[in-house]
Amino acid sequence: MKANFFKIGVDLIVFSLGAVSLLAPLLFQGINAPIFSQSSFPIVVSGIIILCIAIVFVEAQSSLLDSKMIAFLGILIAINSSLRFLENAIPGPAGFSPVFILIILTGYFFGSRIGFLMGALSMLISGLFTGGVGPWLPGQMITAGWVGQSSAWLRKPIQKMRWSGSAVERIFLCVHGAFWGILFGVIMNLWFWPFIGASSGQTWLKNASVVVNLQRYGAYYFATSFLWDITRAIGNVLLIALLTQPVLKIFDRFNHRFSFTIAETER
Description:
The protein is mainly α. It has a single domain, classed as Arp2/3 complex 21 kDa subunit ARPC3 (Orthogonal Bundle). It contains 10 helices and no strands. Helix 1 (about 1-25) packs antiparallel against helix 2 (about 40-60), helix 1 (about 1-25) crosses helix 6 and helix 4 (about 100-110) packs antiparallel against helix 5 (about 110-130).
């Protein structure tokens, strides 16, 4: 019981840290500098890394995260980092990124906290390899962590309805991937939008209400980012539709071969 409360507490901290950091300009009127600035960057990244270590510590107390799973997670993160390197070396359609499929499927199969680790650490390691280190990195780590974390929420209803391995399972995952393809961009714009110049009616107003600033942000988003994110969403759908079955078979083989049990509380 205590372990479950502790895990719930970690999940709440994960969500609260990211939400407050990204929404600070909207929630706290009068803020004059972004949370994810050059000066705060080391502090925020260090906080996220400490949080990841806390998650590893919590899961190490159960059978979910042992040395084999840690090694396997490291391999998945290395693969994702390589995919992001290729994305930068061989640019594809604007907005498309192959890194989300493994984050989504890892969270879906292994649970919310493993999914968060996969997302956050994939962005951290790939950022180091690709030179993508800057004030945007904490936001990427938190948001990609949320992608993996929320993917686990699909598992229980799909299993309950006995849709595992069916086309319906892939459809649900495709919808989830499309949703996050757009939402990732919506969230990531918040780290810089309040502090840049934009067209009339699209800028952040220091003393305006949350509703007014959200309306102005919506105008900015649809004018500058929506088509980019649609491309990412379509890419997620295509990759999930093609690769879900073989990737989940690899995960299932690993699960059975090394005889470790995925905690039912994670499903």
